[in-house]
Write a structure and sequence with these properties.
Oligomer: single chain
Number of strands: 19
Helix content: 25-40%
Distance between the termini: 26 Å
Radius of gyration: 22 Å
Shape: globular
Strand content: 15-25%
Number of helices: 17
Largest sheet: 8 strands, antiparallel
Length: 476
């Protein structure tokens, strides 16, 4: 590996960093999860341009071709917010850290936005807020543009514009051949690549730039409500009603119940209305639940809102994130709560544990705006009028010796929820990639996966991004 690192240093002077450098340490230490920061690559590459990415990829591909595909491994990192070990870092390989590729440029009379794949959503919102513009993106400022977009991407604006990936107009991509292509839905030579990148993760190349459709956006009405855990019956009913046939597409809800070894248990509702309408009707069922510990709901900017959400996401801890989905069914919501409650005893002994279940709705209105979801949800045709609930388990803890017990409990909990969903006939067969854990089958087994495999073979016939890039979710 030393020889390959030396080749990279010669090709990209000042942009390749070995373990003894400050830049290497900053990159490795800045991941969201401790599991990712504990991985030590042979070097970190910090490209500043697409040409730099081409140089790095060309050397890495040549090395793999000479020594055997998969022998020289590399990882691609945007924000580094995925939790599981190896998702965007690689032991003894080359980690390509895209965070210096953070261009943010409004073009086409303010109707489009070009964003470098290494930009963070907080950077995007700080640039757009003063212009009265927005694009759908992450709900936390430190989430990277690249990972969220390539996974699909729920946002506060999904009720009006679908998922984040549904709003991409063009991807700039460096392929395994070292060539640069600009994939659009109408480009005759690569419209299939555009299709594949929409929720296809890192299987087809390194995306270096996205062009998004913008829309006018001023202040929002939103914030956080915190209630005691004893309000669960009212909370789950309010969530169920929120998702119902009177769903307001301007409303966004992240509905969580959690247990903290240091702060106790409770419900946390992060609720947003994308118009600056004070106390909209959709918020009232939650604000009327009493007693209430905290209410920060107010008029604010998108930047301020994401910074508030960051308080619930501390970097550098051991982390797990795993998810499933099912169709909205009130008894199943209660079943999810009960299963989560039962699981708490298995992790309560872990130092610093925070153990939370988050529910988010993907309503028929959101699906109607999302060509991606219309194909990604396997049995949607017979359930087109039903809301899909994303059930996301997150856990944080302080000591790595507790990791095995936490992960086993998480897997068992999600498996139990899936079993209950099947028993009710409410399983969807869809896993939301951005919240998935290593090993989950996010692409399913069907026509979509087969088509993605065909496209992968077309643009990466040697399987570089399947065998030399172990992170993410693979097609083969």
């Amino acid at each position: 590996m030393d020889h390959h690192v030396s080749e990279l240093v010669r090709s990209l002077p000042g942009k390749v960093f070995r373990p003894e450098s400050q830049q290497y340490t900053e990159s490795v230490d800045s991941y969201f999860s401790a599991q990712e920061s504990q991985i030590k690559p042979a070097c970190v590459v910090r490209p500043g341009t697409t040409a730099d990415v081409v140089s790095a990829i060309s050397l890495l591909i040549k090395a793999n071709q000479l020594q055997g595909i998969g022998s020289v491994k590399f990882a691609v990192r945007s924000g580094g917010h995925a939790c599981f070990a190896g998702s965007a870092n690689v032991a003894d390989g080359v980690t390509i850290d895209l965070r210096d590729m953070n261009l943010i440029e409004v073009i086409q009379d303010s109707t489009q936005l070009c964003v470098g794949a290494g930009a963070l959503w907080g950077q995007v919102y700080r640039a757009l807020d003063p212009l009265g513009l927005a694009v759908p993106g992450g709900r936390h400022s430190q989430v990277g543009v690249g990972g969220l977009t390539l996974g699909g991407g729920l946002s506060h604006f999904s009720g009006h514009v679908g998922l984040v990936c549904d709003n991409v107009l063009e991807y700039e991509v460096v392929l395994a051949s070292g060539s640069i292509v600009r994939a659009t839905p109408t480009a005759p030579e690569c419209s299939d690549l555009f299709y594949a990148l929409r929720g296809g993760s890192n299987n087809f190349g390194i995306v270096t730039r996205f062009t998004f459709r913008t829309f006018p956006q001023g202040h929002l009405w939103g914030g956080t409500l915190i209630h005691p855990i004893e309000t669960q019956t009212q909370q789950l009913q309010a969530f169920y009603d929120f998702c119902g046939y009177s769903y307001d597409p301007s409303a966004s809800l992240i509905h969580s119940f959690g247990m903290s070894s240091e702060r106790g248990s409770g419900f946390v509702n992060s609720i947003v209305y994308t118009k600056p309408e004070h106390e909209p009707a959709v918020v009232k069922p939650f604000t009327e639940i009493q007693p209430m510990y905290q209410n920060t709901v107010r008029e604010l900017s998108l930047t301020a809102l994401t910074l508030e959400q960051d308080a619930f996401n501390e970097n550098g801890l051991c982390q797990i994130m795993i998810a499933t989905t099912y169709y909205l069914h009130l008894p199943l919501l209660h079943g999810t709560y009960n299963l989560w409650q039962d699981s708490c005893d298995s992790v309560r002994h872990c130092t610093g544990i925070v153990w939370s279940m988050t529910l988010q709705p993907i309503t028929p209105t959101i699906i109607a705006h999302s060509p991606f979801l219309q194909e990604a949800i396997p049995n949607l045709v017979s359930n087109s009028n039903k809301t899909v609930v994303v059930a996301q388990l997150t856990g944080t803890w302080k000591h790595s010796e507790d990791t095995a017990a936490v992960e086993a409990t998480a897997l068992k909990l999600i498996d139990s929820i899936d079993s209950e969903a099947r028993a009710f006939g409410m399983d969807t067969g869809y896993i939301y990639l951005n919240y998935a854990h290593a090993g989950q089958n996010v692409f399913g087994e069907g026509q979509r996966k087969e088509r993605l495999r065909e496209i992968s073979k077309k643009y990466d016939p040697e399987g570089i991004f399947q065998r030399a890039v172990p992170g993410g979710f693979k097609l083969f």
